[in-house]
Design goal:
This protein is mainly beta. Helix content is 2%, strand content 62%. It contains one helix and 28 strands. The chain has one helix at residues 330-337, and strands at residues 6-7, 17-20, 24-31, 35-45, 49-56, 61-67, 72-73, 78-79, 84-92, 98-109, 115-124, 128-130, 134-135, 145-157, 159-164, 169-172, 180-189, 197-207, 213-221, 225-228, 232-239, 242-243, 248-252, 256-265, 271-278, 282-288, 296-310, 313-328. A six-stranded antiparallel sheet has the order 1-2-4-9-6-7, with no helix packed on it. A five-stranded mixed sheet has the order 3-11-10-5-8, with no helix packed on it. It has a five-stranded mixed sheet with strand order 22-21-28-27-24.
Length: 338
């Protein structure tokens, strides 16, 4: 172990407390998915220190502190003056590609704290994924979509099962029948996703190698019949039953839409006022609450029964939208102001 140590934190100028041999490490080229142990040599000079916790720039780091004789120092335990040892960080690179920079910030008591350590590596994939990102076409929630994915490796491998999934996406073709340099599977965006909007994430697959295969996924759900907002209606503050937010919008992107029935559950005396924005196509729904509504949290559900006609076919649809808010009284507000 070298005798030259770098000071950091508030005690650097006094060259006392927790000192590290180096504050930065470049780990060079690595394989994405590799778990690499990074070691930083340290010495405690002049005064003891206590490390209470650490903060990492990602949730992919495990850390331990060991003295030269193998003694383990737990968080909150005093590290005596004169101790030499190593900080060992286990860096999990799964899901990362390209140059990846991470840092550890040590927090505690004593000179040299807080201290920040940096390390980086250039991460190359062990697996080649085709396509590099699975992008499903924009489609309604009623439609099921699928895409074939090819996974290639530098030596024969098998895909076993799912380590991490994405809601609404299933994987077909697991496990692989036998080891091969190339494996094929199918990703399916399932029908029945209620909430519209863009989704992005990944599916991570366990293999018989030490590396996982990670498949990025992007898609947008856009139904023929929509509500804005889709599932949750935030009312914020409700004063004397007045809802001071924009109304709900209900509409059809194609075909005709008829609002057959509207029911409000959860708040006695509540109703929905319907305004036609475009005949047979778009509606505005305004929630009407009773003026004597008791102060406190307000929550309930709007139930919609819809008839959608498109391309000569009629479908009956049900939608449920939850609403939330806080009811107050103008009388109470005036009393508080006085």
């Amino acid at each position: 172990m070298l005798g030259l140590f770098a000071g950091c934190g508030s005690g650097a100028e006094a060259a006392a407390g927790l000192l590290f041999e180096e504050l930065r490490q470049d780990l060079g080229v690595m394989t994405s998915g590799e778990q690499r142990e990074v070691r930083f040599a340290f010495e405690v000079q002049g005064a003891p220190v206590v490390i209470h916790r650490f903060e990492a720039s990602c949730g992919c780091i495990e850390l331990e502190l060991l003295g030269e004789g193998g003694q383990r120092f737990d968080f909150g335990q005093q590290i005596p003056e004169g101790t030499r040892g190593e900080l060992r960080a286990l860096w999990d690179t799964s899901g990362f590609l390209g140059v990846r920079k991470s840092q550890l910030r040590l927090l505690g008591e004593g000179p040299g704290l807080p201290a920040t350590l940096h390390f980086q590596g250039e991460l190359e994939p062990w697996f080649e994924i085709e396509p590099a990102v699975v992008r499903f076409e924009t489609a309604g929630s009623e439609q099921e979509l699928s895409a074939e994915v090819v996974v290639r490796g530098p030596e024969p491998f098998r895909l076993l099962d799912i380590l991490a999934g994405l809601a609404g996406v299933r994987v077909e073709g697991l496990p692989s029948a036998e080891p091969a340099l190339e494996q094929r599977l199918r990703l399916v965006r399932e029908a029945g996703m209620a909430e519209e909007g863009r989704r992005a994430g990944f599916v991570q697959l366990r293999t018989d190698q030490e590396y996982a295969a990670t498949i990025p996924i992007e898609f947008t759900v856009e139904s023929l019949v929509y509500t804005r907002p889709a599932l949750k209606y935030l009312l914020r503050e409700v004063v004397d039953g007045r809802v001071e937010v924009d109304p709900l919008e209900l509409g059809a992107r194609e075909g005709e839409l008829e609002l057959r029935d509207v029911q409000v559950e959860g708040v006695a005396g509540a109703a929905v006022k319907v305004e036609t924005l475009e005949e047979g196509r778009r509606y505005a729904l305004r929630l009407v609450l009773p003026p004597d509504l008791a102060s406190g949290p307000v929550r309930g559900t709007i139930h919609l029964l819809l008839a959608h006609r498109n391309a000569g076919r009629e479908s009956l649809l049900q939608r449920e939208i939850q609403f939330f808010g806080l009811a107050t009284s103008s009388t109470n507000s005036e009393s508080q102001e006085r």
